[in-house]
Design goal:
about 650 residues, alpha/beta, Rossmann fold, 14 helices, about 50% helix, about 15% strand, Rad50/SbcC-type AAA domain-containing protein, P-loop_NTPase, Rad50/SbcC_AAA, coiled coil
């Protein structure tokens, strides 16, 4: 991946400082000259955080980094204490300027490109699709996340603070999310994460989103149907038929009332009928309220029971653990007042003097008790869920009864205010009841399409689940096939050993054996003999100087492999103080050997890889180096070799 730094411009309170970069840029000199600040500001422009030195705290305003990518040059300006950058690329009428987040995305900022942050923009301008990896390494249905440019830069920028304390976050002590990200980067470089894997993971991510959306839609439709008291097309048809039968009954009542009036028979007044109906509704509401109160009481009782079981289970486990621990403790003094304990008879507790009846619980008995407690907890959770479902149904029924009772009361009040004949009032009420039932039947009938929609959505969901299963199976086969081919991993081992030997790392020879086990990718070096069990790793190296060389050589090996495989790793290697813990005079062989390795690679394999180096002393290449070298000596207070901020004197 073409990624060449062109220049860094520091905007300071009293002017600007520009630093131009070459094929190899070598900054060296005394401490306090601002060497490390150069690299930290590069990282800051690329989205990193920064701790400003005292001089930078006083003077720093903003930084602008120019980077040459596949599709042209981009300048990235980041003001001090800002979480956004201003990116500019292109020229003339085709020039663009964009403000976007340095790291945390907040939606697409460049329409139609998927660019949400600086990392995405750098990938987009390099014609590279950002690699996607699963967030969870244990769940097959986990959603995916992008590997960002920040993740790749772990293997491109070896900063001074971590060069001898962390092995690219592959250590077991590193945060798990960083450890998994670092492994993903190596898989990406080695080729275990190829283009087909990326395509399949993108398809799975899309299918997962569709599945979640369909599930939410189905749940919403089912909830609507439950609220109206129907859950299937058959129930809707039965409900509609029942309502129409009730309406037909009212029409029959109207006809019967008409015949009785014709025969001059007495007809009850509508207000009396409505009063009786309202009374029945009140009784039904009272029954419902009592039932709801009983369920709430039972629910509270079951919930308290559940909490008691959970608390007792926890106390029991703590008691067993405490008993197991304290049984083996031989107390010599009182744990409360620290005075010496008196002699006790055999079989008595040495603390309280009572008969010692401590028995270690049988593990089988403990397992049975634990299983019974879990079964009872699961049973109570199920009962509470049933209570919730019943409460929902009864409250829905209560709301429906309240609405019906309110309508009946309203109609009764209207009937009382009218002075109509018994026949007329009865007819009006019956007509209203019949019309209300027919309208309700019409409304419920209109819902008949919802169960059909639910079935259609469930069929679509089943298709998506089937596709996900097939894609996961294919993805698993492709991953296994990619990881079964150890050619690239073996090449990385060979490169790493070659770098260690050529850099003159003490105790390592060309006859040693390097192992990089998957999935940890934590490099190990063994002696040449199969019977030799001593292993050299970043953790077992006691020397800080060997740690810096060990880590630097691994980064160089990764870049050598990336060059060979044309992997999308930025062609940039920044190393801050590889001789941090090494004396250039006492360990001359390692000092010269390491830089000789870099210069030889730069003349060959690293022709297109830019190197930026910082150290205490300068190691010059051979006289006829086939690359451009920029070397800058930096010393505070030296006009001939000025520090990063030439005018700064600390005042």
């Amino acid at each position: 991946m073409k990624f060449r730094l062109t220049s860094l411009v520091l905007n300071l309170r009293r002017g600007a400082v520009q630093i131009d970069f070459a094929d190899v840029s070598y900054f060296w000199g005394q401490m306090g000259a601002g060497k490390t600040s150069i690299l930290r500001l590069i990282d800051y422009c690329l989205g990193g955080s920064i701790q400003l030195s005292p001089a930078m705290q006083d003077e720093f305003v903003s930084a602008t980094l120019s980077v040459s990518l596949l599709n042209g040059e981009i300048t990235i300006e980041r003001p001090r204490d800002s979480d956004r950058v201003i990116a500019k690329w292109g020229e003339g009428d085709e020039g663009f300027e964009l403000s976007l987040p340095a790291r945390r995305p907040d939606g697409e900022v460049l329409p139609g490109t998927g660019v949400e942050q600086l990392s995405d923009l750098l990938f987009w301008l390099s014609d590279i699709r950002p690699p996607r990896v699963r967030k969870s390494k244990t769940r097959d249905d986990s959603d995916t996340a992008r590997l960002s440019m920040r993740d790749l830069l772990w293997y491109c920028y070896l900063d001074q603070d971590e060069i001898d304390s962390s092995f690219f976050h592959l250590d077991e002590s590193a945060p798990f999310y960083k450890r998994y990200k670092s492994r993903d980067v190596l898989r990406y470089v080695i080729g275990f994460h190829d283009e087909r894997v990326a395509e399949l993971e993108a398809e799975l991510d899309q299918l997962r989103g569709e599945r979640l959306a369909l599930t939410a839609t189905i749940d919403g439709l089912v909830k609507v149907l439950k609220e109206v008291g129907v859950e299937s097309e058959m129930q809707i048809l039965q409900r509609v038929s029942g309502l129409r039968d009730q309406a037909a009954g009212f029409y029959a009542e109207i006809e019967a009332a008409r015949e009785r009036t014709t025969r001059e028979q007495r007809t009850d007044h509508a207000a009396d009928i409505l009063r009786a109906q309202a009374r029945e509704m009140g009784v039904e509401l009272g029954r419902l309220d009592e039932a709801i109160a009983n369920i709430l009481e039972a629910q509270e009782r079951d919930r308290r029971h559940l909490h008691e079981i959970e608390t007792l289970s926890l106390k029991f486990r703590r008691s067993v653990s405490a008993k197991a621990v304290l049984t083996g403790v031989a107390f010599e003094s009182c744990p409360r007042c620290a005075q010496d304990l008196p002699e006790r008879d055999t079989g008595c507790c040495i603390v309280c003097g009572q008969a010692d009846n401590v028995e270690i619980a049988d593990p089988v008995e403990l397992a049975v008790i634990e299983r019974d407690a879990k079964a009872r907890i699961a049973e109570l959770n199920g009962i509470l869920a049933l209570h919730d479902a019943k409460l929902g149904t009864m409250r829905s029924e209560r709301e429906s009864l309240l609405a019906t009772k309110a309508r009946i009361e309203r109609e009764r009040n209207e009937a009382m205010h009218r002075y109509d004949t018994a026949y007329l009032s009865t007819m009006i009420t019956a007509e209203r009841e019949a019309a209300s039932l027919l309208q309700e039947a019409e409304n419920i009938g209109s819902l008949i399409r919802l169960p059909r929609m639910v079935e259609a959505q469930r069929e679509s969901l089943a298709d998506i689940v089937g596709k996900e299963q097939r894609l996961r199976a294919e993805l698993k086969e492709i991953r296994e096939a990619a990881e079964s081919d150890a050619t690239n991993l073996d090449q990385l081992k060979a490169y790493f050993l070659d770098c260690l030997v050529r850099a003159g790392v003490p105790g390592i020879t060309e006859n040693d054996r390097v192992e990089i086990p998957t999935p940890s990718f934590y490099a190990e070096v063994f002696g040449p003999s199969p019977n030799q069990h001593a292993v050299t790793t970043f953790a077992t190296i006691s020397s800080g100087g060997k740690k810096t060389l060990f880590k630097s050589c691994f980064a160089i090996a990764v870049h050598r492999l990336a060059v060979q495989l044309k992997a999308p790793l930025p062609q940039l290697l920044i190393i801050d103080s590889p001789m941090k813990n090494i004396s250039e005079r006492e360990n001359r062989e390692q000092f010269e050997g390491f830089y000789r390795l870099l210069y030889e690679l730069k003349a060959g394999e690293f022709r297109n890889t830019q190197l930026i180096l910082i150290d205490k002393e300068f190691s010059a290449p051979a006289e006829r180096a086939d690359f451009a070298l920029f070397e800058r000596h930096m010393r505070p207070g030296d006009p001939e070799n000025p520090p990063l901020i030439p005018y700064y004197d600390g005042k």
